[in-house]
Amino acid sequence: MQPGDQHLVFVNRDDEQHSVQVTVNADDVVFERTVDLAADERRQFTLEIDKPGTYTVSVSVDENSTETSSINFDDYDVQEGIDVFVEISDGRPDIYWQE
């Protein structure tokens, strides 16, 4: 990971396609997208987070299952980068992150 890189990684663990809508915001929306993920597909997008703060990640799968999580990006996370994962399993989203 290059310094300052933040990624949003979609992972579909199911054996069927899902439509996944994700919004990441703090004061303003920093990422908003709907992605159609094939079975067992993984896709990565760049997040452009340039200031520390608490960011809310909201996910909807097939307009049914939803999940919301708050992630605190501190100075280290902004400078060194972080990956936020949206993993779909059994049609339900799970949100987690790693530095």
Task: Describe this structure in a few short sentences.
By secondary structure, the chain is mostly beta strands. Helix content is 6%, strand content 64%.
Helices and strands in order, then pairings?
Layout: E1 6-12, E2 18-25, E3 29-37, E4 42-47, E5 53-61, E6 65-73, H1 75-80, E7 82-89, E8 92-98
What does this structure look like?
The N and C termini lie close together (9 Å). The protein has a four-stranded mixed beta sheet with strand order 4-1-7-8. A four-stranded antiparallel beta sheet has the order 3-2-5-6. With 99 residues, it is mostly beta strands. The protein contains one helix and eight strands, in the order ββββββαββ. The mean pLDDT is 92. The protein has one domain: Immunoglobulin-like (Sandwich). A hairpin with a 3-residue loop joins strand 5 and strand 6.
